[in-house]
Design goal:
Elements: H1 2-54, H2 62-65, E1 66-69, E2 74-83, H3 96-107, H4 113-117, E3 123-131, E4 140-147, E5 160-166, E6 169-172, E7 175-178, E8 183-188, E9 190-191, E10 207-216, E11 222-226, H5 233-246, E12 248-251, E13 254-257, E14 259-261, E15 266-269, H6 279-287, H7 295-308, H8 312-325, H9 328-337, H10 343-355, H11 362-371, H12 376-385, H13 389-398, H14 404-417, E16 427-429, E17 433-438, E18 444-447, E19 454-458, E20 470-473, E21 476-480, E22 486-491, E23 497-502, H15 506-512, H16 520-532, E24 540-542, E25 550-551, E26 560-561, H17 586-590, H18 593-604
Parallel strand pairs: 17-19, 18-24
Antiparallel strand pairs: 1-11, 2-3, 2-5, 3-4, 4-10, 5-8, 6-7, 8-10, 9-10, 11-15, 12-13, 14-15, 16-17, 18-19, 20-21, 21-22, 22-23, 25-26
Helix pairs in contact: 6-8, 7-8, 8-9, 8-10, 9-10, 10-11, 10-12, 11-12, 11-13, 12-14, 13-14
Length: 619
């Protein structure tokens, strides 16, 4: 019995072992078959896509089979608390905004948040900034401030914004959504002078700017996405190779490329430093690149562009394609476009040549800065990015032009080329601002309200002729003395009054500002009011940068406001649903009604998975 039981047990074990072995072999066979099937399918797909790419009539340019994403200006919003007000703050009415601010104060462990929020020395404001596609994490951006509709504050002058976290808000399928923190803002407010706001003659004490007041905590993402019929790793690699062969740069001694394929449909695009000032043109050039081409096909496209460049309707597209090719032959074709009778053909040819560091384009760009206001901002960018010595000389000559925005725009462009250029190097006025002196026969004082705190003096040091006591801000006084000197006085929050006696000229008064603990806002309003009351001997221009929102009118006029820039918009033509911000700088857009509308459209633009940006009322 025992022997039979042992025999059955052995047979059972052998049977189980055979079954297990068969199952394993069967499984391996299935896996081998599945792997072989997937490999065969992959090879079939490769042959199909290669056959499509060999088709002589196939699309040649990246932009013909792909669309761009991430080109619109990002708008980040929040509510913030202004402190340090001299009794001009106000309470916040019961609302979502009040609850939001109370929660923020509690989160920062502020004692007695109700009393702080309703104090006459504080005010609740809307905080906003715009980040362009090529802005990087760590960049300093300007902040726009406007008093909340739920707060009854009367004046934001002398105010300081407490740290505020900004986010991107959107409405997706009827539900309000916000991202994580995108920027952190704080700093001293500068109430916008009336001369900056279109159609305004009086200061609006409830709107302000903080120059460089926000630190960006995130980098916007740019990418291109392939159309369905071309979604394949083979195509991604071909495009990636074409882009990186044309666009790369050195960083800390290492060569960096800009394109990185992520899957079979998406290529991430990193900003290229040379194109940072015009990301729309950067992406337009990428979309104008050919891919998976031989030399003969490239030469064929180049000849086609030669004909298209002569027609103003196609000049921009042809110039971008030639710039994308980037060869000596392409450069020669673009140089031919500089002598065309049509101003648009000359502009697009010169602008593309600027990114190729061609000296031939410099005279064209310089003349357009002088005589074509519609092209002026972009032509200054062209002179800024062109690394040939002739471009620097042209900008130095533009510093002597009579038009304030040409002169200050040229200085801005020189700073983009080389911040250490000795001609535009300024002396620090304490920690208040920088004072730049440019020798010139045409006197002018310019005041910056964007990116940097600086006063630029063109020509000799002007005299200040005070007719009587002068109050540029609620806490500051300039008092003329009988001996021709000027007494400066500043009342601090503690009640202490600081005083200084200086000569009655601009340089001396500026040097006296740190002595009385004055701020850049005091300087801005002092110069604005001195000019308005004819108490300074030279003209003063507040933030005279080339104004955005102009288009070239082919019928004659060249300085027309518009919500879009038509053919000069330099936007991605394949991304028609995504509005782009035509503004070169945020403040100019914000203070212009038409540009403000354009910026609002920009903030509401979304990609395929997003909806329009919601206002702060949900806060």
């Amino acid at each position: 019995m025992k022997s039979n039981a042992q025999s059955r047990s052995r047979r059972l074990r052998v049977t189980c072992s055979l079954v297990a072995t068969l199952l394993v072999l069967s499984s391996l066979g299935c896996q081998s078959w599945m792997q072989r099937n997937r490999k065969e399918q992959y090879e079939i797909d490769i042959e199909l896509i290669k056959e499509k790419m060999r088709d002589p009539d196939r699309p040649r340019l990246i932009g013909e089979v792909a669309r761009a994403s991430g080109l619109h200006t990002r708008r980040y919003d929040s509510l913030g608390l202004i402190s340090n007000l001299p009794g001009t703050g106000g309470i916040v009415r019961p609302s979502n905004q009040r609850e939001f601010m109370l929660e923020e104060l509690r989160r920062h462990d502020v004692l007695n948040p109700q009393e702080v929020l309703d104090s006459p020395s504080t005010a609740t404001v809307k905080v906003r900034l715009f980040a362009n596609p090529c802005d990087q994490k760590g960049d300093r951006l300007d902040v726009l401030i406007e008093c909340s509709d739920e707060c009854n504050a009367t004046d934001l002058r002398e105010g300081v914004l407490m740290p505020a976290s900004l986010r991107e808000y959107s409405n997706i399928e009827g539900k309000n959504r916000s991202t994580n923190e995108k920027a952190l803002a704080s700093g001293d407010l500068i109430v916008i002078p009336p001369s900056v706001i279109e159609g305004s003659t009086e200061v609006d004490p409830l709107r302000a700017v903080i120059i460089g007041g926000a630190k960006l905590l995130d980098t916007p993402k740019m990418a291109i996405y392939l159309a369905n019929e071309y979604q394949h790793v083979f195509v991604i690699r071909a495009m990636e190779k074409a882009i990186n062969r044309r666009f790369f740069y050195q960083n800390a001694g290492k060569q960096k490329v800009v394109a990185a394929g992520k899957n079979d449909r998406e290529i991430m695009i990193e900003p290229l430093p040379k194109y940072k000032l015009d990301p729309l043109h950067y992406m337009s050039t990428i979309l104008s690149m050919g891919f998976h081409e031989n030399d003969e096909q490239v030469a064929e496209r180049l000849e086609g562009c030669r004909g298209l460049l002569k027609q103003r309707e196609y000049a921009r597209r042809a110039a971008c394609e030639l710039e994308a090719i980037g060869s000596k032959e392409a450069t020669a074709v673009l140089i031919e476009g500089l002598s065309n009778n049509d101003v648009e053909v000359r502009f697009h040819s010169a602008y593309s040549l600027a990114y190729m560091d061609s000296p031939e384009c410099v005279p064209v760009l310089q003349n357009m800065v002088r005589f074509e206001p519609a092209f002026r901002p972009v032509c200054l960018i062209g002179l800024a990015v062109n690394e040939c010595p002739e471009a620097r000389v042209a900008l130095e000559e533009l510093l002597q032009e009579a038009v304030p925005e040409v002169r200050y725009g040229a200085l801005w462009a020189m700073r983009q080329r080389d911040p250490r250029d000795p001609l535009i190097a300024g002396a620090n006025v304490g920690e208040v601002c920088s004072f730049v002196h440019i020798p010139s026969q045409i006197p002018l004082v310019t005041v910056s309200l964007e990116q940097t705190k600086e006063i630029v003096l063109f020509g000799s040091n002007p005299v200040i002729h005070l007719k009587k006591d002068f109050a540029p801000s609620p806490s500051m006084r300039l008092i003329p003395m009988s001996n021709g000197m000027v007494r400066m006085a500043k009342r601090l929050q503690t009640g202490e009054i600081l005083q200084a006696v200086v000569s009655s000229d601009l340089a001396s008064i500026l040097k006296g500002i740190p002595t009385i603990e004055g701020k850049y806002a005091d300087v801005v309003h002092m110069l604005d009011q001195l000019h308005a009351t004819d108490q300074i001997s030279v003209p003063v221009a507040i933030n005279p940068r080339p104004r955005a929102g102009r288009v070239y009118d082919r019928d004659g006029a060249t300085d027309i406001d518009a919500d879009s820039l038509d053919s000069l918009q330099l936007k991605n033509e394949t991304e028609t649903e995504e509005e782009t911000d035509a503004s070169w700088f945020s403040l100019s857009s914000w203070t212009s009604k038409k540009s403000e509308k354009s910026a609002r459209k920009t903030s509401e633009a979304t990609e395929s998975s997003e909806s329009s940006a919601d206002d702060e009322s949900d806060l």
